[in-house]
Each structure stands twice: as structure tokens, then as C-alpha cells.
Amino acid sequence: MKKTTLSLALAITMILSVPAVVLHPSSTVVAADASGTTASISDILKNQQQDGGWKKDYAVTSGEWAKSTIDNKATYSEIRRLASEYKKTKDSKYSAAAVKGIHFLINMQYSNGGWPQVYQSSGYHKHITYNDDAMINVMILLDEVANKKGDFSFVDSSLASKSKQAVDKGVGCILNTQVVVNGKLTAWGQQHDSSTLKPAGARVYEVPSLSASESTTIVKFLKTRTANTKITASIKAAEDWFKAVQITGIKVVKENGDVVVVKDSSAKTPIWARLYEIGTNKPIFVGRDGVVKYNLSEIEKERRTGYAWYGSWPANVLK
């Protein structure tokens, strides 16, 4: 496998428009992006924290979300925008802030190669976070820095080298967190415990499980790495798992402000559940009571309509 550069677009879960009646399985409910995706460059500069990162919401002043984070595109978006601004203006205040942000991402990384959702945090924010492609998007950025690609041609060789080391450690973490069931590699959870490396829960409706969505983006990134025995085995195992858990014969329909699953023998194109039970590979659905259900209809309407429970995520990697 040749090493190629993964564009940022590949790392972001595909979001397609939703028809009036039938929901395309890739449709998803997206949380608000971090402030840095739309803030002015001057506000980005003003809101860079002492550690070099950024908050998700610039207006928050206390609690966990007042800490630097990679959730909802925070920090890596600011770094990208600053690097772009430096390329346009050659004003060193932008490159200096971007470099400080890159150093933050490197410092944020655990010794095992993973990244938490929130820096120096508690609870589930400490977990290695693949959820919403947070860790992979950080690795994509650092890979560009390592290779001085695009807007990062200005970085020095020392920072490029440190970024490469961080990416290599991240790949090691990915390989070490791939879940083994009955001696067989499968896929990844949305988040993994930073000590045990096992899948871990986050929000009450995000229980320890295997995720078709986040695992897809992980596989896409692994396919950009120089092939070796472990990477090749990891990709094949994940693709085999995608094939084993794909679902046909149903369609996901929006009606009367609700989302329902309807049997449809003509539905030949496979879709996937967002979450699968570890060991059984059964699709699972969880409401705000935290109780695992095996049918979407069994959880409350607010969660049925407020989360991407089905999608076509792996279709691209299986082509």
C-alpha cells in the first residue's frame, strides 16, 4: 500500500441532504461546531489559552468545558485557520499562535498515543476519544505538519519531527485499541479507557460498544499509512467486521417528526447501526435512561430523532 495524504474532508463523516420522507442512512444530527470554526481571526488569537489550546465555546468560563479540547472541531480548526492566515499575510503573530497550538496537541497526547477529549479533565472527557472523529482529525493535522504540507510549510524541522512521532504513536494506539472478540480483531469504540484501552462509555446513551461510524474514519486513516503486517491485518479485520454486521432489508423513515425503521425487502443497499454490542454484534440503541435496547422504537422520541443511529459510513471503504 502506498502512503498517501488524507484530505481533511475524508476524515469528516459524510453528511447528505435529507429527503422529505425517507432518511438517507448517512443523515446525522450534528452538534454545534466549536466557536473557532466561525470566530474572527482576532477572536481566535484572543481566546487561545495559556496551554496553547482553545475551548469549545468561547463564552464558557468555568467547568470542564472551559478547558482546552478537541471536541466539535475545537483547537485543530483554530490552528488550521491561523496557518492559512499566516500564509496570506506573513504576519508572524499567526504562525506563532499556530505553532503554540500544535505544541499543545503534542503535549495533550497520552504516552500510549491516544488523545483525550478535554485536556487535563475528569470523567469520560479523559477517555481516548475517537467519537466524532476527534482524534483522527488531530492526527490528520499533525500528519500535514510532519510533512510540511499545505499551509504548514512554515514549520521548522524540529516541530515536523515531533509531529511525525505523535502521529506514529497515534497509529500505535489505534492498533492497540482495536477490540478483540474471541481471539479475532473487530473494530473500535467511540472512546476507550486511557488506562485499560478497552471501550468505555461517555454520555449516558453512548455505552461501551463498537462503532461503525468512528471505525470507518479510523480505517480510512490507516489506509494512508505505509503498509506493514499489523496495519494490513487491522484494516482487513475491520473490513471483515463491516461486512459481517451490515444490514439489508430495512429503510429508515422520517414520518410525523419521528424516525422509524421499516422492513423493506427491496432495500438491497446495506446500512449500518452506529453502535453494536460487543460479542454479539447486535445493533444497540440507548435512551437517556442508559438502558440498552435492541430496537430503535424502544427508546424515547427525543433520542430517536436526536442521534445518528443508522448510516452508510463503511460503504466507502468497502468499495
What does this entry look like structurally?
The protein has 319 residues and is of the alpha+beta class. The protein folds into 2 domains: 1-30 and 181-319, Glycosyltransferase (Alpha/alpha barrel); 32-177, Alpha/alpha barrel (Glycosyltransferase). It is built from 9 helices and 12 strands. The protein has helices at residues 8-11, 41-47, 76-89, 92-108, 134-146, 157-177, 212-222, 229-245, 301-305, and strands at 128-129, 180-181, 184-185, 191-192, 210-211, 250-255, 258-263, 272-273, 275-276, 285-286, 292-293, 310-311. The strands form 6 sheets. Strands 1-4 form a two-stranded antiparallel sheet. Strands 2-3 form a two-stranded antiparallel ribbon. A hairpin with a 2-residue loop joins β2 (180-181) and β3 (184-185). It is globular. Mean pLDDT is 91; it is low at 1-30.
Q: Which blocks of ≥5 consecutive residues have pLDDT under 50?
A: 1-30
Helix content class: 25-40%
Helix run count: 9
Number of domains: 2
InterPro entries: Pectate_lyase
Protein name: Pectate lyase
EC number: 4.2.2.2
Pfam family, one: Pec_lyase
Question: Would you spell out the secondary-structure blueprint of this structure?
Answer:
Blueprint: H1 8-11, H2 41-47, H3 76-89, H4 92-108, E1 128-129, H5 134-146, H6 157-177, E2 180-181, E3 184-185, E4 191-192, E5 210-211, H7 212-222, H8 229-245, E6 250-255, E7 258-263, E8 272-273, E9 275-276, E10 285-286, E11 292-293, H9 301-305, E12 310-311
Antiparallel strand pairs: 1-4, 2-3, 5-9, 6-7, 8-12, 10-11
